[in-house]
Every structure is written in structure tokens, then in C-alpha cells.
Specification:
Blueprint: E1 6-11, E2 14-19, H1 25-31, E3 49-54, E4 57-59, E5 71-73, E6 77-79, E7 83-86
């Protein structure tokens, strides 16, 4: 049985973690008491858009919502190493 590994997430200046068995950054943030904006959880609407300050993410599927360079959709991405993310909506 594989043990979940953790990656560091800094979200709006707060140090958090993402476990490898978590389906998305959004899910990890919610597990730790954060309440970022979201709607669809599928990458369609873009409500969970945030700024990727540092690091890289991987998408579980190609999002349909428009995202600019330097932005990330929290609902359908996972960190590819440590990341720093900023969101105007601090829930």
C-alpha cells in the first residue's frame, strides 16, 4: 500500500499541505478550513481561478474555463511540487 506524500501549498500567505491522494488543490484547501470561491468543481466556470505566484500545477483534465498565464483553477489541478497561490477571494 502506497503512503500519501505531502506537498507544500502557501495559500494567501498561509502554509498548508496537499496530500497526493487528494483530487485537487481546492479539496486540500477545504480539508484545512479554507473557503475559496468555486462553483462547478470541473474546470468549466472559472469561479475558482487564482494566481499561481510560484510553482507548477498539473490538471486532471483540460479546463474549459479561460485562464490567463499565471492563473490556475483550484478545482481541477494538483501541485507539481511546492506552490504559492494567491486569491482575491479569501472566503
Amino acid at each position: 500500500m502506497c503512503k500519501a506524500t505531502k506537498t507544500n501549498i502557501t495559500f494567501n500567505g498561509k502554509a498548508l499541505t496537499h496530500e497526493s491522494d487528494s483530487p485537487s488543490i481546492l479539496h486540500s484547501l477545504e480539508r484545512q478550513g479554507e473557503t475559496p470561491a468555486y462553483q462547478c468543481r470541473e474546470g468549466f466556470c472559472g469561479a475558482c481561478r487564482a494566481v499561481l505566484v510560484q510553482g507548477k500545477v498539473k490538471y486532471s483534465h483540460e479546463p474549459l474555463a479561460f485562464i490567463r498565464d499565471g492563473e490556475v483553477l483550484l478545482c481541477c489541478s494538483t501541485p507539481d511540487g511546492d506552490v504559492i497561490i494567491s486569491s482575491d477571494d479569501e472566503g
